[in-house]
Amino acid sequence: MDDKLMLMIPGPTPVPEQALLAMAKHPIGHRSGDFSKIMAEVTENLKWLHQTQNDVLVLTASGTGAMEAGMINFLSRGDRVLCGSNGKFGERWAEVAKAYGLEVDVISAEWGTPLDTEKFREKLEADTKKEIRAVILTHSETSTGVLNDLETINRYVKAHGEALIMVDAVTSLGAVNIPIDEWGLDVVASGSQKAYMIPPGLGFVSVSAKAWEAYKTSDLPRYYLDLGPYRKSAAKDTTPFTPPVNLFFALQATLRMMKAEGLEQIFERHQRLTKISRAAMKGLNLPLLAPDDATSTAVTAVRPPEAVDAEKVRSVVKKQFDIALAGGQDHLKGKIFRIGHLGFVSDRDILTAISAIEVALRELGYEGFTPGAGMAAATRVLAES
Length: 385
Fold this sequence. Notes:
Mean pLDDT: 97
CATH topology of the largest domain: Aspartate Aminotransferase, domain 2
Cofactor: pyridoxal 5'-phosphate
Strand content: 15-25%
Order of helices and strands: EHHEHEHEHEEEHEHEEHHHHEHEEHH
Number of domains: 2
EC number: 1.12.-.-
Helix content: 40-55%
Domain Aminotransferase class V: 27-329
Number of helices: 14
CATH class of the largest domain: Alpha Beta
GO molecular function: alanine-glyoxylate transaminase activity; L-serine-pyruvate transaminase activity; oxidoreductase activity
Strand order of the largest sheet: 2-10-9-8-5-3-4
Low-confidence stretches: none
Family: Belongs to the class-V pyridoxal-phosphate-dependent aminotransferase family.
Largest sheet: 7 strands, mixed
CATH superfamily of the largest domain: Type I PLP-dependent aspartate aminotransferase-like (Major domain)
Distance between the termini: 34 Å
Shape: globular
């Protein structure tokens, strides 16, 4: 059946009808008064979502572009930075930092395990000369389904006193509590195709007063990603360059939806979907990549049975049910599949995906579970919620 594709990946995520209809409207001039009104509302609601009074700037870029902007605007060539790496995206930020001539000290952990917060403490406490200029890390490591302990690492950064903390919150902002002002986070980047529930194309960067002080002396090259002009333009409810106007229509709609649902309810829904997914996979006797105490609320990474290639599970689920699951990346390709439960995803969606996975496993010859065991485990979690 055509037009029944169901996205159960960590991005792009499903888009609600309100946002789709908003995007279908005729564009308007991005220098018009009507657009400025939308920009003002969007900016106010972004601050609500980010739990901050800091600037939250909107770029026409992916989450990678937002994160790169968040790094290059506040650092200088030769600066020493600590970069946490326990997955695809942690590796990416180390690569970006090296590309701009930064001195990168990588704190790594095996894919599927959280970053060791004590290693950050040790490095920061040993830096008596205060040479570390920033700590860069991914909060929700989408490639593995691990949630790193941002709160603890940030506490060590604050004790250091000089370093900025720069956070890839691309799949955690809007899915788990990140009180930016309460924690004093300096730079937080995210992307529209995740918990914001709209298509790819917009990146968001929250910037603290401390980071803006560092901006004054930063010497890294930038033009389109120079956040100074974005800040000046945002103060006038406009943008420095031509934005994707219709994505702003969609963002206006979804931010209204999120406010109506409420922050606590949004976080509770994502947590419930995570528990359902993990319980169901355990019911199917499938091991999970991320430990229970460090699990992302955006995606659940699952190891298939030894005799089954993860890509075959994805293929059957896609061909037979038109449900898209995510695969493993780099050395995990074929070794895991990932169930996205981020953004516009409901209990019904996750139950449907679990049923499809059960069928696929049976078709691929896996008999290591009682039929219906995944659904039974999932419904028990629902009943307790």
